[in-house]
Amino acid sequence: MTSDLVLERLTRLHPKKIDLSLGRMERLLARLGHPERDLPPVIHVAGTNGKGSTVAYLRAIGEAAGLRVHAYTSPHLVRFHERIRLAGQLIDEAALIALLEECERANGEAPITFFEVTTAAAFLAFARNPADLLLLEVGLGGRLDATNVVARPHLSVITPVDLDHREFLGDDIKAIAAEKAGILKPDVPAVIGPQPAEALGVIAAQADLLDAPLIIAGIDFQYAATDEGFRFARPGQPAWHLPRPSLAGPHQIANAATAAAAALLLDLPAPAIEAGIAGAQWPARLQRLKTGPLVALMPAGGELWLDGGHNPHAARALAAALAAMDARPLVLVTGLLSTKDAAGYFGAFRDLAPKVVTVTIPGEAAARPAEEIAAAAIEAGLSATAAPDLASAVAQAARLGTRVMICGSLYLAGRVLADNG
Question: Which of 35, 61, 89, 132 is the most buried (most CB within 10 A)?
């Protein structure tokens, strides 16, 4: 028996991959003895973009402070075990199998989604392994996400809200912000990363109803890039010069500042905050690949990069990061899911005018065909062609430019990391 076999069985417990509701989760947790009531102090993190990076900074900060830190993130890139980190270590195979089978037996034949039953397994793991902190990342939305059964987290965090998952969360920023604000709890403080005005208004209104104190970017803490890193300031406090974030891209300063604001509320020491910001690791977020068979396809002096951002907001952040690099011929190797806004994604790169090579994400039922992605890029004003597979796409891109960015999907990023060794 392997965890992959158990996980495959669990995908068959519900006809839909996503069906937002708390009822099934509450039923299963009751049968399991309510492990969600016996967790370490929880930092609950929602948002459209930047959740994973913010969790990565907070984990690195907590560990630099000597804390035992659990973390729950999704989706995984290569192996499911990446989702459940116990006091700094990925969950091992034997423990994962045992927990998944325990949840499977408790659930019986009742309908439950894959994310719900695996989140229940994660809660069991977190409840049974001592730690000082649990970083809990929302899977989708917030209000009806399986992680939102935690009645009283220690702290909530909402990273930037933008348009994504419209088929589940709503068609405009206000509707999506309302779903994210669903993680706020009465009297529980919340750190709010930079937001569009309409999103911030919705979040603030929900916080008022709950008497949840807000610590808001741009109001309660400020940040600005410097040559060495960034300047962080709070009203009435001396400015603090923090190191350059370990994760690349100008947008990471906002994520690191949000993590710093949260860490200060946790009373974590300044040296640990500095060390965590400078040392956090999080793959497929503007990551340069330096070895492996895909890198070997690049010309001498060429660069191969990887980014898993998959919506227009993430594409704009990626485009800004690329624009800040030295000028050289740029090619995007892009795969997208059929549920994503391809026109909005490619529109973010119009001013950079990269060439585009598209690929169908292998092994994903919801993958958009490469030919359709190429047509969307052309419609956005870019030059694009479709490739039959990932290696062919990278080889073709390497003939067109010396900086190749594989982008468009975390699922594509996971395949890249697996194939590139």
Answer: 61
